[in-house]
Amino acid sequence: MNKQHIRWGIIGLGRIANSFAQDIPFTTNASLQAVAARDGDKADAFAQRYGATHAYDSYNALFQDPSVDAVYIATPHSLHLEQATEAMRAGKAVLCEKPITTSPSELEQLTAIAAQTDSYLMEGMWTYFLPAVQKAKQWVDTGRIGKLLHVKSDFGYPQLPYSPDKREYNATLGGGTLLEMGIYPIALARLFFGEDPINVDQQSHLAPNGVEDDTTTLFTYPGDRYANLASSFRCKLQNWTYIIGEDGYIAIPDTWRANRCLLYELDTLVDEFDDKRESLGFHYEVEAVSQDILEGKKTSKIVPHSTSMAFQLQIEQLRKMAGSLQPCSAAL
Predict the structure, then answer these.
(1) Where are the alpha helices (DSSP H) in the chain?
(2) What CATH number corresponds to the domain at position 291?
(3) Quick check: 215 and 177 in contact, CB under 8 A?
(4) How far is residue 69's CA from residue 20's CA, in Å, rounded to a whole number?
(5) By CB atoms within 10 Å of each CB, which of 26, 113, 161, 212 scores lowest?
(6) Residues 274 and 144 in one domain
(7) What is the torsional sign of CA 43, 47, 50, 53?
(8) Nearest of 74, 88, 70, 87 to residue 32 by alpha carbon
(9) Gene3D superfamilies this protein is in (predicted)?
(10) What residues make up the domain containing 105?
(11) Which of 98, 147, 276, 301 is catalytic?
(12) What contacts 31, CB < 8 A, 6 or more positions away?
């Protein structure tokens, strides 16, 4: 691609889209070109707030805008398959917020369409791009904690009062804590162990409409190694990750948005890292994806399609074990 930066469009202008747009100015290779919402007034206000050139009251209008190179999809999970498909068929690169789809079969369809249209497609697991998380991975890979034995990770915020119509609980929108929050701990276990567990145990609590609202999971890996993961709509969890080895452990505070990590030997802090950023942290992902697109790549080496499929397969397994309702979305 013979250009210096990627012009982004955003659809679905909620909280996370605001964070994404707010961080684009911290990049060196991206700009915000267009935004779209069902409500034209909302799109106009968002565009004015973040300096987008165009605002649309139709997602398709944004997909057809020739000045847009890439689309960030920040709508509910159940809409991702349809909207990412439309964007790629319109010739756009796609960064789709996690979870990229609500089932493995949907992801198979989406990656097939990416191949058919020769399009860039990546799931927006922004946590993988944070320098603190990458530093923790480097410490593990270079033997700073010895043999890896345990990963403990959780993510939970109260989503109360309960309502079956609230997006987080709405079964037709892919509601439930595993797709909404549990994907973060699952992703951290995948990042550090780098393989599938050989055994899975789980305890879950279901909301009145049948979607899971609290889960605790134990993954067992070869060599008697374990990941203890949790997610919740019922309470605030610590939201930290601990990577524990024979010789020490790493703590990552507020892992999903981490700006620092801490290395311990027993109770002694021996090393620490702080990225000292001024942004929210989304710009690391935006910069990396924009560079991929500029270089003509079709997938990310940080979040390849195989990693997204691993998330989907594990979440599907856990939802079946919990007995929670399956999300409703139409196959294309």
Answers:
(1) 15-23, 40-50, 59-63, 80-89, 104-117, 131-141, 177, 183-193, 282-294, 305-322
(2) 3.40.50.720
(3) yes
(4) 16
(5) 161
(6) yes
(7) positive
(8) 70
(9) Dihydrodipicolinate Reductase, domain 2 (3.30.360.10), NAD(P)-binding Rossmann-like Domain (3.40.50.720)
(10) 6-125+282-298
(11) 98
(12) 5, 6, 7, 8, 24
DSSP letters spanning 302-315:
SS-HHHHHHHHHHH
Residues counted in the chain: 332
Q: Which residue has the tokens 């998330």?
A: 311
Structure tokens at 131: 């320098």
The pTM assigned to this predicted structure is 0.95
Measured distance CA(76)–CA(175) in Å, rounded: 9
Any catalytic annotation for residue 98?
Answer: yes
The alpha carbon of residue 289 and the mean position of all alpha carbons in its chain are separated, in whole angstroms, by 14
85 and 177 part of one domain? no
pLDDT in tens, the chain (332 residues): 557 899 999 999 999 999 999 999 999 999 999 999 999 999 999 999 999 999 999 999 999 999 999 999 999 999 999 999 999 999 999 999 999 999 999 999 999 999 999 999 999 999 999 999 999 999 999 999 999 999 999 999 999 999 999 999 999 888 999 999 999 999 999 999 999 999 999 999 999 999 999 999 999 999 999 999 999 999 999 999 999 999 999 999 999 999 999 999 999 999 999 999 999 999 999 999 999 999 999 999 999 999 999 999 999 999 999 998 554 443 33
d(CA 72, CA 122): 10
Residue whose pair of structure tokens reads 């904690």 in the numeric block: 145
